[in-house]
Amino acid sequence: MPEGDGFVRITETRVRSEGLPLHATPAGKKEVGEQVVEEVRMIVKTAVFTAAVHPFNYAQVLMQIGYEPYPPVLGKTFFGKPVLKLPSVFDYLDHIRKQTGWKGLFQGLAPTLAVTIGTIYAYRGTQRLIKYIYDEKYLGRPASVEVKRFGFLESAESDRNAMSNLRFVPREVVGVTYTSSQFAEDLVKEITIVSVAMAVTWPLQVVAFRSMAQFVGGEHIYDSVVGALQEVINTEGVAGLYKGLFPMWYSYVSITGVMYVAVFSYASYNNVNPYNLKLVTAVAGAIANSFFYPLKLAARVFAVSGGQFCITLLPSRCSSPT
Question: Which partner from 21, 84, 175, 255 sits 20 to 30 angstroms from 112, CA to CA?
Answer without folding.
Answer: 255
